[in-house]
Give the backbone structure.
Amino acid sequence: MFRLILCLAALTVALAYKNPHYASGRTAMVHLFEWKWDDIAAECERFLGPRGFGGVQVSPVNENLEIWSFQRPWWERYQPISYRLITRSGNEQQFASMVRRCNNVGVRIYVDTVFNHMTGTWNEHTGTDGSTANYSQWSYPSVPYGRNDFNIPQCVISGDDYYCCADRVRNCELNGLKDLYQGSEYVRTQIVNFMNHLISLGVAGFRIDAAKHMWPGDLSVIYDRLHNLSTTYGFPSGARPFIYQEVIDFGYEAVSRDEYTPLAAVTEFKFGRELSRAFNGKNRLRWFYNWGTSWGLLASSDALNFIDNHDNQRGSGGGGDILTYKQPKQYKGAIAFMLAHPYGWPRVMSSYAFTNNDAGPPMDSSGNTVSASINPDNSCGNGWICEHRWSQIYGMVAFRNCVGNTNVTNWWDNNSNQIAFCRGNQGFVAFNNDNWDLNQTLQTCLPTGSYCDIISGGKSGNSCTGKRINVGWDGRASIILGANEYDMVLAIHAGIESRL
Ligand code: ARE
Ligand code: CA
């Protein structure tokens, strides 16, 4: 009996960090990579809130080294120099105001948190708030950190280490980044204070950068010292922060994701890799009828899932073969599948255009980020892609919100790359990744009536700008998805965006 109580207690603690605390009816987040705080606040109010997005993952918020020798690359933000809240995205007052404004319209903020390491060794020494570092002394006076706060002896992680040596993956330097010693009480306190400060400003949770490179025992101590989410910002009392740990695990490595799921949620990299392969024509969609743990994925409630992220869209961090905005038809197919399927806590990527993998966000000659402009058709300008503003993507976010916790039912496929399924009696979706047309009468599970396909167009008053689907008394409807259509998806649901 005592043992059972202990087990239940452990379970409750882990579950506590696996709830994103979305506002009611919301189910998906977007990573607004490199966006500025003022712009995110405006985007919450004018777009994300009204369109039903549940949250935003923001780029690292604390001061980082400015790396002019690479023309201010995006990855300088993964080289912290202090925990002051000043970056190219804005200052503390702007950050606080963003969190408040987003929470006010039902959109939560999750911070990408970097505390495995500080900077690498550079000829440049100055941070985004003017802090300096002395690398040969491991000295970061604005925290302050010194030599004893880092792992000794100094060593650098090699490719082979990932397969043999968990201790080297945790205690050596990732890419030569000075590796903090989270076993130290002093270091833990700096990290916990930083994160609790963010909680006091109203954030709902954290992405833990490079979690694989830290000991689960240390992380557990840090998580348990975090404060509950702030009731001032509308979180229920006693709510723990949502924590998703970046652990890249395709199997066979010395460090396993299973060491981290007892603590909190984990990024599921197999998810985007398998779906990218299939929508790229390298696997058949028919096989996805049992998508989930049967494929070796994490338990759904443990998984933060996505197609591409800011690393693998550039071919790094377990990348390669990942669909991105650069292959829009296949990409929108994969994203639609992610959002139509009940698996996990999905995250949509929102990018800026790039050809050079190092290139930072659109910026002026002084290195200041240039805001996304908004075109009359709702798309973005100034070099920003804004995938989250593509109607096929935000339309599927509304679909996911509408179908809620319903199961996948009435799976249909043609033994190849044409598939369709229902989500309870709330939604129906079909995909055609074959090079011939889909033309079938299928069970949609929806109540009799007329619906607008949200992919080829949408509702405009009492008519559809795209396809109109008439569901008969028996729930069946004629579904046509031509191989040469602009999109390979058709989706209808019981919500106001689709039902006539
Ligand atoms: C930069 C330069 C380096 C330089 C270094 C130090 O590019 O040349 O040596 O600075 O000065 C990002 C960039 C890095 C960049 C770093 C710091 O990607 O290029 O280094 O910022 O500015 C592993 C980790 C995983 C990590 C990926 C990228 O396990 O945690 O590598 N992902 C996160 C972030 C990154 C970020 C960091 C961590 C560092 O998402 O954006 O790096 O904060 C197998 C393993 C994986 C391993 C992968 C490496 O797949 O399973 O675990 O991922 O190989 O490709
Ligand atoms: Ca480490």
In short: The chain has ten helices and 20 strands. Confidence is low (pLDDT under 50) at residues 1-9. Residues 408-493 form a domain with the Immunoglobulin-like fold (CATH 2.60.40.1180).
